[in-house]
Amino acid sequence: MTSLRKSGLILFAIVPLLLTAGCWDSSEVNDLALELAWGIDAAKDQGVMVSAQVIVPFRIGSAQGSAGGGGGGSQEKPYFVVAGIGKDTLDAVQQMQTKLSRQMFRAHRRVIVIGEALARRGLKEVLDTYSRDPTLKLRSDVFIMKGGTANEFLKVAYPLEDIPGLAALKEYNQIGALKEMGLINLMISATSDGNCPALPVIAIGFESDKQEEDQDGSARMKGFRINGTSIFDNDLKLLGYIDTREGRLLRWVKGELGKLIVTADIPQDKGRISFDMNKLNSKVQPIFQGDNIKFHVTLSGQGMIRENNSNLDLTQTHNLAFIKELLEKQVEASVQQTIRKVQREFGSDVFEFGETIHRKHHSRWNSLKDDWNQEFRKAEVTVKANLSIRRIGVTGPSLHLKEDSIQK
Amino acid sequence: MKIPMRYKSNHKGVPRTNPAAPDRSDQAREVDVALSRNERMLKQIFSNSSDILFRSVTISGQTRLLLVYVDGLVNADMLDQVVLQPMMFEGLPGDAENGGSGSIGDLLIKRLVAVAQVKPAQQIGDIVESVLKGDLAMLIDGETQALLVGLQGYEKRAIEEPSAELSVRGPRDGFTEALRTNTSLIRRRIRSEKLKMESLTLGQYSKTEIVIAYLEGIASESVLKEVRQRLHRIEIDGVLESGYIEEFIEDVPWSPFPQIQNTERPDVVCSSLLEGKIAIFVDNTPFVLIAPMTFWAGLQAVEDYYERFIYTSFIRLIRFALLNISLLLPSLFVSLTTFHQQLVPTNLLISVAAAREGVPLPTVIETLLMEFMFEGLREAGIRLPKPIGSAVSIVGALVIGQAAVQAGIVSASVVIIVATTGIASFAIPRYNLGTAFRLLRFPMLILAGTLGLYGVIAGIFLIVIHLLGLRSFGIPYMTPISPQFPENIKDVWIRAPRWSMHQRPVLSTGSNKHRVPEGQQPGPKRGEKNE
User: Fold this and answer.
1) Which residues contact A25 (CB under 8 A, 6 or more apart)?
2) Which stretches make up the Spore germination protein N-terminal domain (chain A) (predicted)?
3) Å from B70 to nearest chain A CA?
4) Those residues with Cβ within 8 angstroms of residue B426's Cβ, 6 or more apart along the chain or in another chain
């Protein structure tokens, strides 16, 4: 009898559970509008325009299912872009939802693109919802759209990927970026006193700006490219850009670069040599000299010579030492130049120098932090590169060279 | 560690005597001196039984005998050659005619009936029982004792390879329907006087012989006592299969998990006996019960112990993975795609969404329907005659696998999930444990469809709690994981090499726990010179 009563009690406890929770929270995947890329742009009256690249699943499915047989008919894109305008993001989303037959599903968002106009206006007023909403991923990567709106970017097709938003992500990974967590890093650097955010920049078209734009008026633009890094100030306002090469070096100084190829000219026009590095490290040491702050940046890298257009025989150690010195000088000069450019043009500490002082000299940082941007502009930076050539490839001198022209 | 044995009484109240029990008033009577009276009585008892034969014989022209036997149960050749021919042609040995000492019955036993099993009987009831078992009853005029001659010779199946438990390596003989054949298969493997076989008869009408086999000193006394008690409590009209008994003696009849193992293989029975378990043989079925059963025993295949241990361990790990898949895959799929889409990798979600485009039913219903159809297919495949069985599988594969997907009624991903689950559920070596998981899959699916992952987790908790509380003949079902016996875990997740498994399973054994002495790992010995 007791067991009967017990099982009755258990049933009594479970049945309300079935009624109260669940069921109506469920939604079938074909009732969701999956959105993988998201754009934010400035709108009138301090408003926001949001755009979403929404996936059309059955087009992706049919493209895979009837591969080869799909020659006939127009090749429709497996995505489309909807936009909404509002006072803030959620207001805009509400407007956007009126154009969608399915519930917006944002948890799979991978890419957030911010239009240049909004970036110049400042990101502070639009960022809150991305960290407040539990359904959103903090790991979405953030890109700045150079010379256009995010909405334009989302409309551009990309030849290799079904969903072009993801292509931006993959392109960026190809440049060797490490530790990229987009939104969360943006939040971290926004809250810190010392450093300023630097976000990757994306631009439409494979070739340089505005070359293939408007050929016959329609949107014939295909593809996009990573085009440098944007520099922000402490108020999350866009100040300007540095190019891709400088952007890589910036990441190296921050210790967030996975691979890099450095090319050096050999003096007296004896050709060029390329060094492919894959183990990159950096160390920043602040040095205090009275009121002056000096930073000593030590960069290290290991790699392999993959191209040698000179007549040097690389099996000779003195040649290697020569090349090594050449490469180091090259790296030192270009990093120095990049840092100086940022110091002079933007005065915004995207190298996390301030954070280094914060970590290592906590007491001094308290007096420095209020006026850090000025201090950063003034700071003297020395760069030292320690490169080590681990491999030279399968030949010493180039194979096509005659024996007597090889410099031993 | 001392684990208190807990036995649940599995009989409620005192069993009442069955009012339909056969009337035995006649059979308590003793054998009469007058043969004609005995004959009349037996003919009355065996009235309307065309298969029971009465044969009158006169030896040496003076002694009348009556032979009673069941046609088909007695070996007719033996009856002719060993009993009838000597008696009819040779007659009684000489000294009997001279009125020598002793009765004719004794004489027959000693001199004339050249059969190993002969015993005297005084009760009519005993005679009836023996005749029904297949013995030949020999009633002698003028004597109050009859002879029961063991001439059993009925048709039986030859020893064949067991069809329910196959293995690539290992002995190929399987049990048959004949009890004595089965026990002999065990004796042949364990030639020890410690192997005991206790007999009892169950079933008021079927009078089925049951044998409890165990290894004295290895089997735990308390478990053995419990097995005996539970068997003796059974009152039933007939026992046609060991399943009849299983249902009477299991600890928790309402549990979906089997608490008694069954097998068709003598080697499995022997290894279980060596582990201290107890085997219950039932006449007329090739399935032998093994108790107590643990959850892990259900995941051990015979071949695990014949193949090399590295491969076996790998297979076991795969088996555990498949076990989880067979229980959880459909419910995880349903809960992830209808409640927690953010947990599914993006590309997978897009594929699932693409496959679901235009499918009319909600995912839960769709999955339930497909699981239902799969069970139907499986059942049809088993029950149908073999030639039609293949037709069913073709129809199933074509109709469900392809046409339904192409018609857009069912999404391809659900078909894949259901098929994977089906395959996984067949990878569980013990059929009856596999059915438990196959059954539990349905409530899990409903939980997943209503509560999402929360429901799945709740379901897993309920199952685990139930498993931890379950006992088989007082042995916790999850031994040796819970309660934990580190020495025995060697044979759970993996199968350790035989030379490293030094102990028998702790709980099911009595005092004799040691199995393999240490230091037998092969390899070059230290200090020995290898020439």
Assistant:
1) B339, B452
2) 25-203
3) 49
4) B434
Q: What average pLDDT does the segment B173-181 reach?
A: 93
Structural domain boundaries enclosing A82: 30-58+76-242
Q: Considering the domain boundaries, does residue A44 fall inside one?
A: yes
Identity of the amino acid at B285: T
- Please check whether residues A89 and A106 belong to one and the same domain: yes
* Selected residues 298-337 of chain B with any CB under 8 Å from a CB in chain A: 337
pLDDT for residue A106 is more than 90: no
Say yes or no for a CB contact (<8 Å) between A108 and B362: no
**A46 occurs within a structural domain:** yes
Residues A176 and A293 grouped into a single domain? no
Nearest CA in chain A to B349: A29
Inside any domain, residue A205: yes
- The arithmetic mean of pLDDT across residues A139-148, rounded, is 88
User: Residues of B numbered 455-474 whose beta carbons fall under 8 angstroms of chain A's beta carbons: which are they?
Assistant: 455
CATH number at residue A352: 3.30.300.210
Q: What is the value of pTM for the model shown? A: 0.83
pLDDT digits (tens, 9 = 90+) for A193-240: 778 888 889 888 877 655 454 554 444 557 888 888 999 988 889 999
Q: In the listed set A242, A268, A302, which residue is the last one of a domain according to the structure?
A: A242
CB A392 within 8 A of CB A320: yes
Closest CA to B128 of B64, B198, B63, B38: B38
- DSSP letter (8 states) at residue B277: -
Q: Which residue has the tokens 């919802």?
A: A129
Q: Work out the pLDDT band at A348, boundaries 50, 70, 90.
A: confident
Which of B331, B357, B363, B410 should be substituted to probe chain A, the one whose Cβ sees the most A Cβ atoms within 10 Å?
B357
Do the Cβ atoms of A21 and B352 come within 8 Å?
A: no
- Please count the structural domains in chain A: 2
Cβ distance of A57 and B449 shorter than 8 Å: no
